[in-house]
């Protein structure tokens, strides 16, 4: 069964039959005169184009997810429901010319008006939609709008608005009612050369038939290129409606995370289980990006600054790949070969990441970037240390991103630590080993010396914070 | 966590929060709207020797390629220092500076044509750090001294002295709000009504020879110091230059040339 080429925008069906599937939703909205959604950067950085995407999980429960419409290719939309800023005020509000009265505004809109949360107003629709998603999820804190930049109002009145909303009783309005309605899982959809299969077998068969087709998971990396009109593949196979990629299974020995589970979902559902994961996810990217980005995508693009990759190295993850030829399990240590080159074969799809259910020792992750949130790493690091009763290291993982062509472990430092206690002499020697473990690049983010210093400094911080 | 009382309600707030507030780039395009795209130079400092626009002009739908020679009146826009040409004539002062503007029937064509404009620029040494600038005595403003009392004597008599240097990285203010500007055809001095949402529309819409045209701005970007003037050279001055010259309505869209490629002095 396939879905007709249409999606629901603000409650109305929109025909996509003639649409360019590689065009961003943001551009589509503008061309169709829905100009309430704003283009700031078109790169997924500023959040001005935030819309609410209705997501239904495997259990059938739905929620509004704030996403950047600039990173959402139209090809992903068939069958989906999207809300933009225009949909929030009471539909009884006058359609043209006259503005809604304060009583007709959505509580989120009224809070921003009451708290003087807009000045030029250009970023405001994005803030409205992030707060809207947070309002129905019962998540209204600073992180709700972490992916929205404001350049003139200032964040204080916007935070006031969020606080005012958080203090309100949960609403039972038409949006809450719409969320509670039962929904079937999204059916397979095809829009031009943009395929959205609903099963793994179908996805693998599509890839076997069209080897040049590109996988697209959350689209937060590929979406940047598409947003700027750089379609790189003749066809795309979207992975975001394949149920088999959406599950998290917590077993006795292994936790299996579907490659298509959005990071925000992992963050919520595995909270407290893996300290290195907990420590990195909030800094991975802003909320709108984490609502779409996936482990499979992070592993597939295999960027040396993919922030979850050092975490997976530190946790001894396995990467489960599948093709029409079968399935295999790659230890993460064997996965990265060279700059953006991995042991995954071209026709293979990453279907899951497996983590040991009970990882040894104590772990943590760190990320240093020019800006704390919503920025690209200078160096990311993830550490796990386990010690015996005498305090001697019996397991060490020191993994880094941003220091080489691939995410890498500092193997010499790990070997040196083995069997030693973490006394001053050991730590001094490890710091020296870490400073010379890699030959990082100097670029506009930081110099090589700084990166080398971070390799040692972040481990010292880990020891001071967690092992002292 | 209690909300503070705002001083007053923003008159456009309801428009902002409902998406009804309209910005320049969203106005219904008038018939015959042309688009502008900048030709940028990838040198921090260079001497401009020539611009060959023949290949761009040969594309059907390309209306003009504007250079400093096309500015009919005052080409200088600097409000304090007179060193910000609307379109530079002979020297490039920063990486990415626009030295020409392609006017074409649509934005995609203007962008394609801009890539065909050949700029002959001779790179010159550039000061890329404070230390290099001091060594070259290349100061932004004439050196100024702020002094009070006898600091040398006071320091000499101080029981403790700390010495060191402190580097503070510069941070450029840049724009989230639309950079669009639009100038209607038959724009005559003091009669035209250019549109812009920039924080400094009066500057970006500089209209020779008066430099002070009335302009329309339904709503403006907020200015917190930086955005007011930075990047004027990329904000669409060509619109003001070209409209009267060619009799067309022209627009510089809000979309940056390439991700992260919009630069300013």
Question: Any low-confidence stretches of chain A, pLDDT <50, length ≥5?
Answer: none
Structural class of chain A: alpha+beta
Oligomeric state of this protein: heterodimer
Strand content of chain A: 15-25%
Query: Strands of the largest sheet of chain B, in order across it?
Result: 3-5-1-9-7-8
Mean pLDDT of chain A: 94
Q: State the helical fraction of chain A.
A: 25-40%
Amino-to-carboxy terminus distance of chain A:
59 Å
Tell me what portion of residues of chain B adopts beta-strand conformation: 15-25%
| Share of residues in helices of chain B | 10-25%
Explain what this protein looks like in three dimensions:
The complex is a heterodimer of chains A (about 475) and B (about 260). In chain A, helix 9 packs antiparallel against helix 12 (about 310-315), helix 13 runs antiparallel to helix 14 and helix 14 (about 425-435) packs antiparallel against helix 15 (about 450-465). Chain A contains 15 helices and 20 strands. The longest helix of chain A has 20 residues, at about 450-465. Chain A has helices at about 25-30, 105-115, 125-135, 155-165, 175-180, 200-210, 220-225, 265-270, 275-285, 285-290, 295-300, 310-315, 410-415, 425-435, 450-465; strands at about 5-10, 10-15, 50-55, 60-70, 80-85, 190, 195, 215, 235-240, 250, 255-260, 320-325, 325-330, 335-340, 340, 350-355, 360-370, 375-385, 395-400, 410. In chain A, the strands form five sheets. A five-stranded mixed sheet of chain A has the order 2-1-5-3-4. Chain A has a five-stranded antiparallel sheet with strand order 10-11-16-12-13, covered by helices on one side. A four-stranded mixed sheet of chain A has the order 6-7-9-8, covered by helices on one side. Chain A has about 475 residues and is α+β, with helices and mostly antiparallel strands. In chain A, a hairpin with a 7-residue loop joins strand 17 and strand 18 (about 375-385). In chain A, about 30% of the residues lie in helices and about 20% in strands. With about 260 residues, chain B is an alpha+beta fold. Chain B is built from seven helices and nine strands. In chain B, the strands form two sheets. A six-stranded mixed sheet of chain B has the order 3-5-1-9-7-8. In chain B, strands 4-2-6 form a three-stranded antiparallel sheet, with no helix packed on it. The model of chain B is unreliable at about 205-215, about 235-240, about 240-250 and about 255-260 (pLDDT under 50). Chain B has helices at about 15-20, 55, 105-115, 130-135, 150-155, 200-205, 235-245, and strands spanning about 35-40, 45-50, 60-65, 90, 100-105, 120-125, 180-185, 195, 250. The chains are: A alpha+beta (about 475), B alpha+beta (about 260).
């Amino acid at each position: 069964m396939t879905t007709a080429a249409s999606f629901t925008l603000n409650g109305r069906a929109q025909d996509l039959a003639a649409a360019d599937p590689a065009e961003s939703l943001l551009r589509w909205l503008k061309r169709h005169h829905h100009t309430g959604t704003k283009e700031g950067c078109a790169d997924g950085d500023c959040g001005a184009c935030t819309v609410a995407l209705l997501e239904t999980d495997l259990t059938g429960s739905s929620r509004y997810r704030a996403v950047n419409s600039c990173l959402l290719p139209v090809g992903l939309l068939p069958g989906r429901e999207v809300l933009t800023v225009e949909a929030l005020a009471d539909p009884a509000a006058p359609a043209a010319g006259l503005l809604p009265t304060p009583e007709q505004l959505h509580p989120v809109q009224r809070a921003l008006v009451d708290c003087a949360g807009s000045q030029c107003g250009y970023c405001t629709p994005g803030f409205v939609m992030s707060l809207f998603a947070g309002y129905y999820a019962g998540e209204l804190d600073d992180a709700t709008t972490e992916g929205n930049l404001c350049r003139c109002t200032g964040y204080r009145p916007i935070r006031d608005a969020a606080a005012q909303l958080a203090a309100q009783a949960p609403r039972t309005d038409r949006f809450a009612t719409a969320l509670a309605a039962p929904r079937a899982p999204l059916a397979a959809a095809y829009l031009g050369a943009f395929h959205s299969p609903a099963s793994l077998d179908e996805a693998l068969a599509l890839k076997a038939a069209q080897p040049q087709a590109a996988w697209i998971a959350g689209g937060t990396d590929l979406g940047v290129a598409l947003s700027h009109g750089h379609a790189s593949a003749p066809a795309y196979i979207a992975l975001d409606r394949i149920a088999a990629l959406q599950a998290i299974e917590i077993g006795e020995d292994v936790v299996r995370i579907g490659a298509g589970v959005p990071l925000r979902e992992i963050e919520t559902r595995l909270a407290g289980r893996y300290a290195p994961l907990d420590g990195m996810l909030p800094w991975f990217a802003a909320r709108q990006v984490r609502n779409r980005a996936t482990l499979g995508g992070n592993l597939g693009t295999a960027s040396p600054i993919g922030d979850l990759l050092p975490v997976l190295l530190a946790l001894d993850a396995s990467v489960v790949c599948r093709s029409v030829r079968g399935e295999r399990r790659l230890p993460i240590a064997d996965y990265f070969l060279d700059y953006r080159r991995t042991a995954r074969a071209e026709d293979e799809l990453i279907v899951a990441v497996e983590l040991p259910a009970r990882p040894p020792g104590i772990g943590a992750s760190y990320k240093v970037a020019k800006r704390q949130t919503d920025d690209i790493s200078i160096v990311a690091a993830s550490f796990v240390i386990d010690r015996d009763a005498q305090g001697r290291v019996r397991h060490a993982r020191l993994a880094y991103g941003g220091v080489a062509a691939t995410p890498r472990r500092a193997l010499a430092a790990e070997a040196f630590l083995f069997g030693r206690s973490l006394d001053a002499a050991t730590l001094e020697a490890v710091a020296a080993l870490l400073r010379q473990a890699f030959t990082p690049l100097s670029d506009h983010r930081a110099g090589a010396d700084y990166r080398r210093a971070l390799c040692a400094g972040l481990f010292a911080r880990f020891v001071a914070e967690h092992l002292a | 966590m209690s909300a503070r009382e705002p001083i007053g309600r923003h008159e456009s707030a309801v428009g902002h929060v409902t998406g009804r507030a309209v910005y320049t780039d969203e106005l219904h395009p008038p018939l015959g709207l042309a688009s502008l795209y900048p030709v940028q130079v990838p040198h921090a400092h260079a001497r401009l020797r020539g611009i060959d626009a023949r290949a761009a002009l040969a594309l059907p739908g390309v209306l003009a390629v504007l250079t400093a020679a096309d500015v009919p009146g005052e080409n200088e826009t600097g409000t304090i220092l007179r060193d910000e040409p609307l379109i530079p004539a002979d020297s490039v002062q920063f990486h990415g500076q626009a030295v020409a503007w392609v006017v074409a029937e649509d934005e995609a064509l203007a962008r394609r044509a801009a890539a065909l404009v050949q700029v002959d620029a001779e790179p010159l040494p550039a000061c890329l750090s404070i230390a290099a600038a001091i060594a070259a005595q290349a100061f932004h403003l004439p050196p100024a001294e702020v002094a009070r009392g006898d600091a040398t004597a006071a320091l000499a008599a101080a029981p403790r002295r700390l010495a060191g240097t402190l580097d503070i990285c510069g941070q450029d203010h840049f724009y989230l709000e639309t950079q669009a500007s639009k100038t209607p055809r038959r724009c005559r001095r003091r009669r035209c009504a250019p549109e812009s949402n920039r924080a400094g529309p009066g500057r970006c819409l500089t209209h020779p020879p008066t430099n002070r045209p009335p302009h329309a701005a339904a709503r403006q970007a907020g200015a917190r110091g930086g955005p007011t003037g930075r990047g004027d050279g990329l904000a669409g001055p060509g619109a003001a230059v070209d409209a009267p010259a060619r009799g067309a309505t022209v627009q510089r869209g809000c979309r940056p040339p390439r991700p992260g490629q919009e630069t300013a002095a």
